[in-house]
Amino acid sequence: MKNIITLFAAIIAISSSASGQVNSSNASSTAQQNVQLALSNAIEVTFTNNNSANGSTVSLAFNTADHYANGVESGEQELKVRSNKNFKIGAKIDLTNFSYVGNGNISNIVTPSDAFALKIVSNTTGGNTVSAFTNYGNLTTNNQDVILNGVNGNNQKFSVKYKCNPGWGLPAGTYTFAVVYTATQQ
Questions:
Q1: Sequence-distant contacts of 93-98: CB under 8 A, at least 24 apart
Q2: Does this model's pTM top 0.90?
Q3: pLDDT tens, 27-75?
Q4: Among 24, 50, 68, 165, whose CB has the most other CB atoms within 10 angstroms?
């Protein structure tokens, strides 16, 4: 009888041990946390050659009579737009008159808008180039749309060329102005 009680106690101990192992391997617990995104509209336009909003200086040298007669054209300048919404691109000249460094008299000044033109030579923004800038179009001090309906994205690029033809009436020296590009979400 003593052996039966011992055997019965051993069976109960093994049964409890096995039951405890099964319960611990099936145990689980969950926790949940909500994550909230606070997204804002974001847009950026930069020059690809230096990844900056301030592009490198573009120098247009007038060294021959042919340059004065026909104007001088720049190389391509590439810009990149990153935007989470569709956008448009505007461009303008920031000065009414050239900034001049030289020894001449510039009383008969030619304004940048009379002498300077911009052309969109490449457009992979998904948008449309404004027809006035598919060939060289003059810029003014007022913002003018040059690309409409650009598509949101991380790497929307366009390239421009500049052409300047100030004519024959300006004295030798360095004339400076800036072209300002504005990317606006639509």
A1: 93/139, 93/140, 93/141, 93/177, 93/178, 93/179, 93/180, 94/141, 94/177, 94/178, 94/179, 94/180, 95/141, 95/177, 95/178, 96/141, 98/175, 98/176, 98/177
A2: no
A3: 999 999 999 999 999 999 999 999 999 999 999 999 999 999 999 999 9
A4: 165
What pLDDT is stored for residue 138 in this prediction? 94
Using the Cα atoms of residue 130, residue 134, residue 138 and residue 143 in order, give the sign of their dihedral: positive
Spans in the chain with pLDDT lower than 50? 1, 3-13, 18
State the Cα–Cα distance between residues 88 and 184, nearest whole angstrom.
Answer: 5
Report the DSSP pairing between strands 153-164 and 72-73.
antiparallel
Taking alpha carbons only, the member of 94, 74, 99, 67 closest to residue 166 is 67
Residue from 185, 152, 178 nearest 47 by CA:
178
